[in-house]
Amino acid sequence: MIAAHDLSPAELAALLHFHADAGVDWMLEENPIDRFAEFAAARPSRPMPGREPGQDAAAPARQAESPADRRTDAPQRQAPGRSAPARGAAVAPAIQQNVAMPDEQAVAAARFAAESARSLAELKTALESFSGCNLKNSARNTIFSEGDPASAIMVVGPMPDADDDREGLPFAGKTGLLLERMLAAIGLQRSAIMLGNVVPWRPPGNRPPTQAEMDICRPFIERQIALAEPKHLLLLGNFTARFFFGGSGTIHTLRGQWRDVAAGHLILPALASLHPQELLNAPASKSLAWQDLLAFQAKITQG
Fold first, then answer.
1. What residues contact 120, with CB distance under 8 A and at least 6 apart?
2. What is the pLDDT of residue 293?
3. Which residues contact 237 (CB under 8 A, 6 or more apart)?
4. 246-267: string of b/e by CB count within 10 Å (b at 16+)?
5. Residue 154 host element (H or E)
6. Nearest to 300 by CA among 254, 232, 240
7. 180 pLDDT exceeds 70?
8. pLDDT at 99
9. Which is it for strands 194-197 and 146-147: parallel, antiparallel or unpaired?
10. d(C-alpha 37, C-alpha 55), whole Å
11. In this structure, are residues 192 and 175 in contact, taking their beta carbons and an 8 Å threshold?
12. Which residues have CB under 8 Å from 188's CB, separation 6+?
């Protein structure tokens, strides 16, 4: 096994990026370490406030404790400035911080935040400040739609991958380069259309989002589409097609067919096709994607 001190700084940085992309959150030592034993061994050597080193830690407490304090039925001492509750009165529980928001409340909060936005800029601000989805805790960036809404053309993918999360943009890395070539083949430029993702945060390890996470993210992507007001919508990937069309079909059964999808007050035609990553994994499917791109181009021309 190669030790860390044998690697160059560039190799160490590449290794850390590899672990981060794989969803690794904690780096562990090669050999197990008993931290409890370390703490127990170091505790006697740490002087307590108001006590000289070497003094018995229990001595001050025993000296300050009166016989009445040692009685089990003695009333408890109150902190300065706080009155004791009346006998029999209910005591309010302590408020817990960072309590996870229930899924139904998170969906309602997401819907309220999305519907309150009156522009894409306001929606981006609302999404970046939203904390009701746990996916945001492990993601580096919040991925929002980019491009020109005046084009009336929007391409939507599933969720950010490692390259998207690192760059803070939708369709980055190899998938983005392939998508740019696909769009150029039908006369479209990346900067001249809208690009976005169903889920704005990369799930840990690129796992599929849960149903609750999808429900929380739905108001934001639907509001992005409603505010951009595209006339033509291209959905890339199996996850994206199921998200908008419903059902449990595969991309090979859902692709190539124009269907109406709802986004806020809009009902607009959408065409599903294969995601660039699926084409990288199975180059033989590029002919199917080309058929879909030609159908998408024909619809734009007719419109």
1. 145, 149, 224, 227, 228
2. 97
3. 157, 158, 251, 274, 275, 277, 278
4. eeeeebeebbbeeeebebeebe
5. strand 153-157
6. 232
7. yes
8. 41
9. antiparallel
10. 22
11. no
12. 153
- The two three-digit tokens of residue 112, written as one number: 């309220």
Contacts of residue 230, defined as CB under 8 A and 6 or more positions apart, other chains included, come to 149, 151, 152, 153, 154, 194, 268
| Longest distance between any two alpha carbons in the chain, whole Å | 93
d(CA 234, CA 269): 9
Cα 202 to Cα 140: distance, rounded to the nearest angstrom: 8
Beta bridge partners of 155: 195, 234
pLDDT in tens, 207-217: 999 999 999 99
| Whether the Cβ atoms of residue 22 and residue 205 lie closer than 8 Å to each other | yes
Provide the H-helix boundaries in 198-285. 211-228, 238-245, 251-254, 276-281
Give the CA dihedral 235, 240, 241, 245, nearest 10 degrees.
Answer: -110
* Of 260, 221, 51, nearest in space to 120 by CA: 221
pLDDT tens track for 106-138: 999 999 999 999 999 999 999 999 999 999 999
For 20, half-sphere exposure in the C-beta direction (CA atoms, 13 angstrom radius) is 15
**86 φ, ψ (degrees, to nearest 5):** -65, 150
Compute CA distances 124 → 129, 227, 277, whole Å: 9, 11, 26
Element (H, E) at 297: helix 286-302
Q: Give residues with Cβ within 8 angstroms of 297, minimum separation 6.
A: 186, 187
pTM of structure: 0.67
Who has greater pLDDT, 175 or 72?
A: 175
259 bridge partner residues: 270
Mean pLDDT of 68-90: 47
